[in-house]
Amino acid sequence: MKEAMLSHKIILIKRRTRLEELAVRYNTVQQAQFYIERLGADFGDYIAEDERYRKAVAHAAAELSVMGRVQIVEREHVPNFIFGKQDVVVVIGQDGLVANTLKYLREQPLIGVNPDPMRWDGVLLPFAVNDLKLIVPDVLNQRRQIKEVTLAKVELNDGQLLYGVNDLFVGQKTHVSARYSLMQNNRIEQQSSSGIIVSTGLGSTGWFKSVLTGAAGIVSSATNQQITLAPNMLDRNDFACHSPYLYFSVREPFASKITGAELVFGQIDEASPLRITSQMPENGVIFSDGMESDFLSFNSGVEATISPAESKGQLII
User: Closest Cα partner for 243 from 255, 230, 257, 233?
Assistant: First the structure.
């Protein structure tokens, strides 16, 4: 049994700490410390976080090495990493690292580990490092419960694909208006806006919720009437992580002689994808989960089709 387990490959995903990021920016830790303390901040917190995270990663790697062949992958290498079909993926970090990893998987199980429970809530990180010796054997033997997560998928007419775990953004790289045509269910509209947000059920309490809350607040103030959001829009049981649909919302649509503002919110499912054709000569982009550096160019003539992905994320719970 032990030899069979060791034949499995376990991918351990980690990220640089704030201290490591500062060291890269300022060349040395000492220079980073000088800069931070000059601003009156507590540099000791950066050091403590870094030490706890390093110890957690080392502990996780040691635990996992007993159960399989371990490969450690840095966050920035995940987009180009080729995951094997039988790989088990362990993410140690914050919730965002889980989301940014899950969209590059194709139904490989993902185990989220919280390296510092006193610092991070870890909604997507239900396990501690010490749990790995119990969780991983169950996963390898398919005895562990899985939470399915619906992903958003955008496909361009040149064949490029991008997936989103929480949300997608379609618009301009800068803060100028995005121009495009929007089509769904035989309705088509020319639009000028601050961009389009597409949310999954997993991301419904993030950007999606803030857009709805802001819109309701504006209408309430403008009309002197209390506007209450429809409960089922934000109810986790209705728009949950496994829901087979997405929602789109157009930010700040501008109505003019040639642009409209009627097709600004709606549900996307397999039978009703959202199609967007860019009318932006340059700087049009599509990115997911806040990763602006990992984007698809979306300039004039490019058509994007957005729908729920055919495969689902597999979170171990």
Answer: 233
